Amino acid sequence: MSVALGTTRPLPVRTTPVGDPGDLLASLPKTAPFAWIRHGEGLVGWGEAARVEVPPGPRRFAWAREWLAEVLGDAHIDDAVKTPGSGPVAFGTFTFDENAPGSTLIVPRTILARRDGRAWLTTVGEPRLQPFTPIRTPGRIRYSDGSLTAPEWEHIVARASRRIRAGELEKVVLARDLLATAERPIDIRLLLARLSRRYPECYTFSVAGLVGATPELLVRRTGKHIESLVLAGTTPRGTSAADDVARGAALFASEKDRHEHECAIASVRQTLAPLCSSLHTPDEPELLVLPNVQHLASHVTGRLADGASVLDVVAAMHPTAAVGGTPTGTAIEVIRELEGMNRAGYAGPVGWIDAHGDGEWGIALRSAVVEGRRARLFAGGGIMGNSDPASELAEAQAKFRVMQYALEG
Ligand SMILES: C=C(O[C@@H]1C=C(C(=O)O)C=C[C@H]1O)C(=O)O
């Protein structure tokens, strides 16, 4: 296990309460930041006290947990706040496909956080002054096709639908990528500021170059309590208030979308039930209205039977049918075969875990991998036997708009 600490061992960690820090994102001193923010609350971090690339394979979540236990095992933790997210925290991103490399865990040197009116600062290792670099805009953005053109993608949607109708599987989520090139290097802080302002309801995140604003909470663990927000079934926003309401009502009444949502709920129920002493899934979904799309949404809650950490729960849940399909194994094979691309961290778990195993992990949707002047954007949707390729393409375009707005303003 490689640990690039560059700090004294045992690792000194100190958390102290601080006054209201104002806009957390405005505190980030330079690009390559860590962030997990919703409605202005959450955690931001910078610097790296420890970082590891998690080896691909079926044991990757367990491996990550063991690595973290080793790094934090002999740390001297002085935590005056004692709440989920205080003390040392690791941010992480896991690739969608367990066989793909690129899953990463990082313990930032500095973490600034706020929740429920309390704010705190954590330092890991010897404090280092980080000079603040000014944020520049990336200039004009040019787009080009990723692995498939729009018509090619519509074609694979039609092929997937046919295979579903033939009974090979029930649902598969297909995605595509879009390449963006900017005139100047892209400062992730600017993207985060735009995303959190426009999508306050979503989790605005940044970990190891993966940036986005996802509405989908895979799991939050607070002690024994867990919760998840399951999304599946989508319609673009309307052109007027009346059109919006009509589209929302049509989504709610759509057999195709309700079935798609049922698949997602069933997969979450099936994976969480063995871990929980109690589990509640609502009978009917609600409507989640975002600036670009409307989703069918179900808020799931449960109580863990034993001391599973948030990463153990993530390991059990990923990939849900909201981003993989039903049945999972067949859907993953169909995704590998038809998409013809590496999803990287897109649709994989992204979030944070603390030394007690509490944390919040989202599904990395409405996101992009950002490096230098380039960004690779991802979007997709659930395909059923009666999916219309043109509507699925329109849905994916609507989902791309999140990161296009982050890049262009
Ligand atoms: C696959 C994406 O979103 C997922 C698919 C949805 C759908 O098909 O209705 C809805 C929300 C997400 O679970 C994406 O945003 O790229």
UniProtKB/TrEMBL annotation:
Recorded family membership: Belongs to the isochorismate synthase family.
Keywords: Isomerase
Ranges of Low complexity composition bias in the record: 1-19
TM spans (from-to): none
Top-level division of the source organism's lineage: Bacteria
EC number(s) given by UniProt: 5.4.4.2
Ranges for domain Chorismate-utilising enzyme C-terminal: 151-399
Protein name, as recorded: isochorismate synthase
Enzyme class: isomerase
Reaction catalysed by this enzyme: chorismate = isochorismate
NCBIfam families per the UniProt record, alphabetical: isochor_syn (TIGR00543)
InterPro entries registered for this protein in UniProt: ADC_synthase (IPR005801), Chorismate_C (IPR015890), IsoChor_synthase (IPR004561)
Species annotation: Nonomuraea montanisoli
Annotated region (Disordered), positions in chain: 1-22
GO molecular function ontology, one term from the record: isochorismate synthase activity
